[in-house]
């Protein structure tokens, strides 16, 4: 992605070249929309927030100094735009309590998921992510979009690396709890059979 | 600790497979359209001077005009000086203006310059409009 980003002519965009900016939008729209959709939990709002984020990117591209990856900078703008919208409409979904997920439960879930069809598994993961709070969904999404780079994740969230690590661990555990609840014991045993 | 590692591994596996959300097919077009609209709006409505400067200038002009009309004494409305000014202007137009004579050469020159300015203004306006809308 960053190699493709190198081909972008940032100076041309700053000078008002819409065609070059359209290339940037095409390059990042899926990731930006994914972050927005997972945080806003609503397709229409996600579209609006994604558009707003790209407009902010366009307006402030001249301030981009290149001290982080372009993707990190764009995701940070998207994350903050989503947070602003959530704060404005007080839409933050509460976090579910963290429960301990032991090794056996993890193994059972893992086996059941492996047996599932890819399509079915994707749908289940998507549903579980939807049940996470906006901040947990954002942390998990950003971590994997940034190729599991904790430093970049911390930059986007405006946190220290250690705090980002703790939040990531909590988000993973909450996702596992939701996944376990979503997969009834019967479902797990039917796939294990 | 080992449980955490297993959990991390499982989450890595499933989240890397998690499908990304697809925006509507005309998403890029919508973003570019909004940017163009904003740019045109900014070009059309951005004032040359900030609001506070315009307000200050208007206030100063009103004060100066009042001072000129009322002779520095804003209370003397009963005997306004502007009536005198109006009558003076009237006489200037009726007495002095007919005396001024322009040669035919001057009149034609001014006329040609006016036509040239008119053509150039129209051409320049079209040029700038096209440049800003196609950028």
Descriptive tags:
heterodimer, A: 193 residues, mainly alpha, Rna Polymerase Sigma Factor, Chain: A, Arc Repressor Mutant, subunit A, 11 helices, 77% helix, B: 135 residues, elongated
Q: Mind telling me which CATH architecture of the largest domain in chain A this is?
A: Orthogonal Bundle
Taken from the alpha-carbon principal axes, the silhouette of chain B is: elongated
Indicate the CATH class of the largest domain in chain A.
Mainly Alpha
Helical content of chain B (DSSP H or I, runs of 4+): over 70%
Name the structural class of chain A: mainly alpha
Keywords (chain B): Membrane, Transmembrane, Transmembrane helix
Transmembrane segments (chain B): 52-70, 106-124
Keywords (chain A): DNA-binding, Sigma factor, Transcription, Transcription regulation
GO molecular function, one term (chain A): sigma factor activity
Verbal overview:
The complex is a heterodimer of chains A (193) and B (135). The model of chain A has no long low-confidence stretch (mean pLDDT 83). Chain A folds into 2 domains: 2-89, Orthogonal Bundle (Rna Polymerase Sigma Factor, Chain: A); 103-192, Winged helix-like DNA-binding domain superfamily/Winged helix DNA-binding domain (Arc Repressor Mutant, subunit A, Orthogonal Bundle). Chain A has helices at 2-6, 10-14, 18-40, 43-60, 70-89, 103-115, 118-131, 134-145, 150-157, 161-182, 185-192. Helices cover 77% and strands 0% of the residues of chain A. In chain A, 38% of the residues are buried. With 193 residues, chain A is mostly helical. Chain A is elongated. The N and C termini of chain A lie far apart (41 Å). Chain B has 135 residues and is mainly alpha-helical. Chain B has a domain at 49-100. Chain B contains 5 helices and no strands. Chain B has helices at residues 2-17, 27-45, 51-70, 82-95, 104-134. The radius of gyration of chain B is 34 Å and the shape is elongated. Chain B starts with a helix and ends with a helix. The mean pLDDT of chain B is 78. Classes of the chains: A mainly alpha (193), B mainly alpha (135). The A-B interface holds A 16-18, 21-22, 25-26, 29-31, 33-34, 37-38, 46-47, 50-51, 54-55, 58, 101-103, 106-107, 109-110, 113, 118, 121-122, 125-126, 129, 140, 144, 148, 169, 172-173, 175-176, 179 and B 2-4, 6-8, 10-24, 27-28, 30-32, 34-36, 38-39, 135. Chain B: Keywords: Membrane, Transmembrane, Transmembrane helix. Chain B: The chain crosses the membrane at residues 52-70, 106-124. Chain A: It comes from Flagellimonas nanhaiensis.
């Amino acid at each position: 992605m960053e190699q493709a980003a190198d081909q972008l002519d940032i100076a041309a965009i700053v000078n008002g070249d819409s065609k070059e900016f359209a290339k940037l939008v095409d390059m990042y729209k899926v990731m930006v929309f994914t972050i927005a959709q997972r945080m806003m939990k609503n397709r229409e709002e996600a579209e609006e927030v994604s558009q707003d984020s790209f407009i902010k990117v366009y307006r402030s591209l001249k301030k981009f100094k290149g001290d982080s990856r372009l993707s990190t900078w764009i995701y940070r703008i998207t994350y903050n735009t989503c947070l602003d919208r959530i704060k404005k409409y007080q839409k933050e979904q509460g976090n579910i309590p963290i429960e301990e997920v032991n090794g056996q439960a993890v193994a059972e879930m893992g086996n059941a998921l492996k047996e599932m069809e890819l399509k079915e598994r994707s749908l289940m993961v998507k549903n579980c992510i939807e049940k996470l709070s906006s901040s947990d969904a954002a942390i998990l999404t950003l971590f994997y979009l940034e190729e599991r780079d904790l430093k970049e994740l911390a930059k986007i969230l405006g946190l220290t690396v250690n705090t980002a690590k703790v939040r990531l661990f909590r988000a993973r555990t909450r996702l596992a709890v939701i996944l376990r609840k979503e997969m009834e014991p019967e479902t797990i045993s039917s796939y294990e059979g | 600790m080992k449980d955490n590692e297993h959990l991390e591994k499982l989450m890595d596996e499933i989240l890397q497979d998690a499908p990304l959300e697809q925006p509507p097919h005309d998403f890029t077009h919508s973003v570019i359209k909004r940017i163009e609209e904003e740019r045109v709006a900014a070009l059309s409505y951005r004032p040359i001077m900030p609001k506070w400067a315009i307000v200050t200038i208007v206030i100063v002009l009103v004060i100066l005009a009042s001072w000129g009309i009322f002779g520095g004494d804003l209370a003397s409305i009963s005997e306004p000086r502007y009536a005198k000014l109006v009558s003076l202007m009237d006489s200037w137009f009726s007495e002095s203006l007919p005396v001024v004579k322009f040669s035919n050469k001057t009149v034609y020159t001014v006329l040609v310059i006016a036509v040239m300015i008119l053509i150039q203004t129209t051409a320049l306006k079209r040029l700038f409009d096209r440049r800003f809308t196609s950028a």
